[in-house]
Amino acid sequence: MKKLESSLTNMLLVLTGVAVIMGAVLAWVNSVTAAPIADQKKKALDDGIKAVLACDDLVVAEPDTVKQNGAKGKELTFVIYQAQDAQGKDIGAAVESTTLGFGGNLKVLVGFDPEGTIKGYTLLEHAETPGLGAKADKWFQKGEKGDIVGKNPKEPLTVSKDGGQVDAITASTITSRAFLLAVNNAYKAYKGTLTADGQTGASFTPDTNI
Predict the structure, then answer these.
(1) In this structure, is the dihedral angle defined by the CA atoms of residues 126, 132, 138 and 142, taken in order, positive or negative?
(2) Which of 1, 71, 150, 169 yields a CA-CA distance of 20 to 30 A from 101?
(3) How far is Cα 121 from Cα 111, in angstroms, rounded to an integer?
(4) How far apart are the C-alpha atoms of 73 and 52, rounded to whole Å?
């Protein structure tokens, strides 16, 4: 078999061939893994909604996407999941809210009752420092040092260092501020969907029972 001559043209042909093959392999891997990843994310969201609303048997409406301007004029996007229990009673909503933390985006799912009181929360996404800012997933839970469960952000929640009532994560004030901002923003977005009597002004179109 004749040895392939070493030339710029031949090297380019070989590199192009390798790139095409690798591209095809990556596309195949993506097609195989896309559905399982999507299913995993949906399950995590469904479990998160149950957790933050403290209800295992509920019906979630079609999500509402709400856009509001933040304090610095930047447009913020929120996803609101209105929910009812098995008897059809409004139990509030879970709200996705994203802010910029110390290491990157900090996405929080916050559960509110119909009056806007916090029922629970979970972190959906973060890039905070392990052992420091990453503690936000536990620090503000019920019974913990920075407990926010049962509080109503009608008066914005702030860290004690800023004159507020919430203890910041040790050595992670930036993350704590970002987290509370996400919660406060989520409350404002949810409040915007409520009528004067505290009921949702949006029509409830069932999406799924989770």
Answers:
(1) negative
(2) 150
(3) 6
(4) 29
